[in-house]
Design goal:
mainly alpha, nicotinamide riboside transmembrane transporter activity, NMN_transpt_PnuC, about 0% strand, globular, about 230 residues, two-stranded antiparallel ribbon, 2 strands, transport
Length: about 230
Amino acid sequence: MSAPTRATISVPGPTSPTTNSARRVPTASTWCGPCEVARVTPDTLVEIAATACGLAYIVFIIRENIICWPFGIVGSLLSVYLMLENRLYSEAILYVFYVLMGVWGWVHWARREAQADNPVQRYAARYHLVLVLGCSLATLALGGLFSTYTDAARPYIDAATTVFSFAATWLEIKKVLETWVYWIVLNAASVWLYADRSLDIYAGLIWVYTILSVWGLVQWTLSYRARALPGDS
């Protein structure tokens, strides 16, 4: 991106015509020195739109509102483009997966809600142990693949966030309480990945996601306990 041209405007002084010693009207560059005004690009607008959809998605899913899924689908479609532009290929695959899972999640939740049977649930520790081991092996395989055959910027970190996000999204659709533990760790790790690729808006968004994931864990825990102990007030 080329730097904007700095214009200087000369105005006649009170006792002389326009000369080399004419007064100069202060401009942005006068006050800011070397600072530059950032130009809004189409990619920036796409990133902002994806960010807005992402925030709406996580707020609505924390509230267990089915409207979360349309926002998630649109935000993921926009994110596919941005990840490809920044050579984060496994992240692009992840967002394609999010689109597909968004459609499935929308249908799944609608069916469960129609049957009045869509509560928050918990899975046993052994299930999560197997899941983490499987995701770790898949991370090594995917990271090696992208490291060898593509110009991926951070192949193994990118692969780890991608693979574990697959698992967390699956748990999210199933409304498994522990999904928020996965998201807290994943979001914290993803901040560095996006900042490293100068996706500053996304990096800021992921910080917000980390905080919201803690909120999600609290809210779903309360929801789970309320259903598990219906007699308690």
